[in-house]
Specification:
Number of domains: 2
Strand content: 15-25%
Number of helices: 8
Order of helices and strands: EEHEHEEEEEEHHEEHHEEHEHE
Radius of gyration: 18 Å
Largest sheet: 6 strands, mixed
Shape: globular
Low-confidence stretches: none
Number of strands: 15
CATH superfamily of the largest domain: CNF1/YfiH-like putative cysteine hydrolases
Structural class: alpha+beta
Mean pLDDT: 95
C-alpha cells in the first residue's frame, strides 16, 4: 500500500480510514482539526441542488457515512459539518453559526453560489470537495480564524483564494503575514491541459505574473497548453501579503495519484469526489 507522506504532509491510515494532514497545521493540533480524504472507496457527494438528475438516496447516505468515519478518525463530530453548494464562483461567505442542530449543514439555500467559507467559531467543521480542483485551507493562528476554499479553474481565474484572504482581513482583522495556506492534492501542470478558450483568459488575467511563460506552457505541435494553477494561486497569495514560507503545498497531483485521490480526468463519467475539512477546537 503506497504512502503519500512527504516533507509537507503525513499520510494517516487509521481504522480503515486514510487521509492526509499537513505537518504545519499539526503544530496547532490543540487549536484545529483538519484532514484531506484519501481512498477510492469513498465518495463525499452529498447531493446537488437544481438538477434534473438528483442523486440516489443511497449515494447520499454513503457520503454522510464517509464523512462520519473521517470526522471520527480525527476526533471530531460530523454533526458539526457545513459545506457550501459549490458552483465554481469566487464567492466566500462567513459562517456565524450552525443551522441544523442534529445533522450536517449540507444542501442549504443559505450556501448557494458559494465556494469558500470563513469562520472564527469553534466546533464548526468547514468542508469543501474536489476531484482535480484545488482546495486551499487557511488558518490564522493569531486571530484563530479558518477558511476552506474550493478553487477550480474558474475559481482560480477569478482569484477566489484572494477573496478568502480579503474576507479574513476585513471581517476578522487578520494580518496576511500571519495566515497559513495549505494546498491540498489537485491536478497539476503535468496534466492540466487546456485549449485556447481557457488559455486565453488565463494569459490575459495573469500575464503580468513573474515567469508567466513557465506557468502557461504551449504543447509542441498542438494548439493546447499546460497551465500551473497551483503556482498561480501561490503567486497571487504572495501579492496579497502571505509569506512564501506560510504557503504549504501538498505537492501531490490528483491525476498522477489517481489510485488514492479522486480525479475527474481519470474517472470521467460517474466520477467520485474527495473532501477537505478544517475546524477550530478552541
Amino acid at each position: 500500500m503506497r504512502d503519500l507522506s512527504n516533507k509537507n504532509v503525513i499520510h494517516v491510515k487509521k481504522d480503515g480510514i486514510e487521509y492526509l494532514q499537513f505537518r504545519k497545521l499539526l503544530e496547532y493540533s490543540d487549536v484545529i482539526n483538519h484532514a484531506y480524504s484519501l481512498g477510492l472507496n469513498t465518495n463525499y457527494r452529498t447531493g446537488r441542488k437544481n438538477t434534473s438528475n438528483p442523486l440516489l438516496e443511497e449515494e447520499c447516505n454513503k457520503a454522510i457515512k464517509d464523512y462520519e468515519n473521517l470526522c471520527t478518525a480525527i476526533g471530531t463530530n460530523y454533526i458539526n459539518l457545513m459545506k457550501p453548494n459549490q458552483s465554481h464562483t469566487k464567492n466566500v461567505i462567513s459562517i456565524k453559526r450552525k443551522i441544523n442542530m442534529d445533522k450536517p449543514d449540507f444542501n442549504l439555500d443559505d450556501y448557494d453560489f458559494a465556494d469558500g467559507t470563513v469562520t472564527d467559531k469553534k466546533n464548526i467543521i468547514l468542508a469543501t470537495t474536489n476531484a482535480d480542483c484545488i482546495i486551499l485551507l487557511f488558518f490564522d493562528p493569531i486571530k484563530k480564524v479558518i477558511s476552506n476554499v474550493h478553487s477550480g479553474w474558474k475559481g482560480t481565474l477569478n482569484k477566489i483564494s484572494v477573496e478568502a484572504v480579503r474576507k479574513m482581513k476585513t471581517e476578522y482583522e487578520c494580518n496576511p503575514k500571519d495566515i497559513i495556506c495549505c494546498i491540498c492534492p489537485s491536478i497539476r501542470q503535468c496534466h492540466f491541459e487546456v485549449r485556447k478558450d481557457v488559455q486565453e483568459p488565463y494569459y490575459n488575467e495573469f500575464k503580468e505574473l513573474k515567469d508567466i511563460n513557465e506557468i502557461i506552457v504551449p504543447i509542441p505541435g498542438e494548439e493546447k497548453w499546460y497551465i500551473d494553477t497551483v503556482r498561480i494561486n501561490k503567486e497571487i497569495l504572495k501579492q496579497e501579503g502571505l509569506l512564501e514560507e506560510n504557503i504549504i503545498d501538498s505537492e501531490i497531483c490528483s491525476v498522477c495519484n489517481s489510485d488514492l485521490v479522486h480525479s475527474y480526468r481519470v474517472e470521467k463519467t460517474g466520477f467520485k469526489i474527495g473532501t477537505a475539512i478544517i475546524e477550530l477546537k478552541k
